[in-house]
Amino acid sequence: MLKVPEHQVAGHIARDGKLGPLVDDEGRFFKPLQGDSRGEHEAKFYDSFSSNKKVPDHIHRYFPVYHGTQLVEASDGSGKLPHLVLEDVVSGYSNPSVMDVKIGSRTWYPDVSEEYFKKCIKKDRDTTTVSLGFRVSGFKIFDHQELSFWRPEKKLVLGFNADGARSALRKFVSSNSSADSNSIPNCAFASEVYGGILTQLLELKAWFETQTLNHFNSCSILMVYENESILMKGGDDAQALLRAQVKLVDFAHVLEGNGVIDHNFLGGLCSFIKFIKDILQSLDERDDETDTSQLENGN
Amino acid sequence: MQLKVPEHQVAGHIAKDGKPGPLVDDKGRFFKPVQEGSRGENEVKFYESFSSNTKVPDHIRRYFPVYHGTQAVEGSDGAAMIVLENLLSEYSKPSVMDVKMGSRTWYPDASEEYIQKCLKKDMGTTTVSSGFRISGFEVYDHKESSFWKPERKLLRGLNVDGARLALRKFVSSNSLSDIDSKPDSAFVSSVYGGSNGILTQLLELKTWFENQTLYHFNSCSILMVYENESMLKGGDDDDDARPQVKLVDFAHTLDGNDVIDHNFLGGLCSFINFIRDILQSPDESAET
């Protein structure tokens, strides 16, 4: 039986009779092919990419596994529609914290319609896309105290400036996020989660520095980690249990690279990496201060 | 002080209609007019800040022109000039190329009018598609014993393949004025390659840009220079070429505000890839 996915943080939601993605209980994600050519376009991308031998194995892991297309009963009751069948990237997690970050300093690209271009550039300029090279599209965090998920409102997220984005990235790995919104994020899981994520982002960066196969316009990076057992266990198992994952998603606007690297995505990715690095570094500095003050207190 | 018009300007402002253009003296200095309005102020502000900024590592300073303050100069109606190191004074027959970096030349705080003007130009050139555009270049042609430069109009209309071709022509020795002749890429490895070559220098800059949040180099250019004099005289001494990368044009450079210059960096990475491709396939036909 197909049901509405629980952990969508951005994009279309299959709710209130709207058309949106569905999941089954076997780890598969069904994304409806939209009426316009974008859906087909995305299918074509998955088709060619998943079998492209020029893509190294260690890079394929950053992309959802593709299982072709299938006619499935649409979520809006409009009958059987073709759907993309993909790996559900959160199916292995029980209470995943998820964040969607759209990468690139522009979401438009050459040869789009004037209307689409205007829509994109306005959004790019109104968000951190132009200034930072990426924007947070949405996120949700599992709260241990409340045993529930917390997510900020979409409007708030799209209104983020640089500090807002920084704050969101800190909240994402904190255990005190849903409490008093004015509390400083404690970054309790920052070093385990972002440590693992940084390694993956750097691997992607190295590939983007030379790959000229595709330009990933308007594509997102999804960060997922398991929040469940972090506070209960710890130590060396923490990273394995956390299973912080990076996945690229949303390929409706991917184009061929034509011998040029995806400098738009790469620039944004480097900027995002710097933000993550800064958070990790601030933890080191915070720990150094604590150590110093402990020494001073005669500990 | 003997001042004259520089011989090798490939892009940017030149003296026209009574407006001052850049000048050089015989002591290795370059005099750049302070531009009108905020652009001029901004450029001076940048040079002042950069030259004394202790956060800039020494090995990165070599990629920027040395700054010697501002000066009012005779014949320029007392207008202030920015005094810089003349990047070409040590070269006898320099081949020079100016490449504007970044997939956009506009920036958030610019005026709407300026943004629209930039966008139009960016979309009509390789700026949007490739993350950089060639503003101009000049190559010493040994056969003709003169300098060759393509027309500005030709450069504007350059597409990706045209940019690739220009980058090959820049390091070639065969007849450049003949559009149909395939560039021989004679100096590819001595200019683009090697431990002191252009690629090595660009990679050093790239590493800095991955972390530096001091400045955003909007609309800034990378200048590539090399000595063409001794190239055909033979000898394996790669030092003869003395290829140099310099960043120039800081009228629109702003504070980084704790964010890396992802616009410049993306374009730089793309440019690096173009240079690498040429180094890896010196025979142009390999690209078809």
How does this model look, in words?
The complex is a heterodimer of chains A (299) and B (288). Chain A has 299 residues and is an alpha+beta fold. Chain A has two domains: 22-87, no CATH class; 96-287, Inositol polyphosphate kinase (D-amino Acid Aminotransferase, Chain A, domain 1, 2-Layer Sandwich), CATH 3.30.470.160. In chain A, 37% of the residues lie in helices and 21% in strands. Chain A contains nine helices and eleven strands. Chain A has a five-stranded antiparallel beta sheet with strand order 7-6-5-9-10. The termini of chain A are far apart. The mean pLDDT of chain A is 89. In chain B, 30% of the residues lie in helices and 20% in strands. Chain B contains nine helices and eleven strands. Chain B has helices at residues 37-51, 58-61, 112-123, 126-130, 152-156, 160-169, 188-192, 198-209, 262-280; strands spanning 23-24, 29-33, 67-72, 80-85, 94-101, 132-141, 146-148, 215-217, 221-227, 244-248, 253-255. The mean pLDDT of chain B is 89. Classes of the chains: A alpha+beta (299), B alpha+beta (288). At the A-B interface, helix 4 and helix 9 of A face helix 4 and helix 9 of B. Chain A: It catalyses: 1D-myo-inositol 1,4,5-trisphosphate + 2 ATP = 1D-myo-inositol 1,3,4,5,6-pentakisphosphate + 2 ADP + 2 H(+); 1D-myo-inositol 1,3,4,6-tetrakisphosphate + ATP = 1D-myo-inositol 1,3,4,5,6-pentakisphosphate + ADP + H(+). Chain A: Keywords: ATP-binding, Kinase, Nucleotide-binding, Transferase. Chain A: GO terms for molecular function: ATP binding; kinase activity. Chain A: InterPro entries: IPK, IPK_sf.
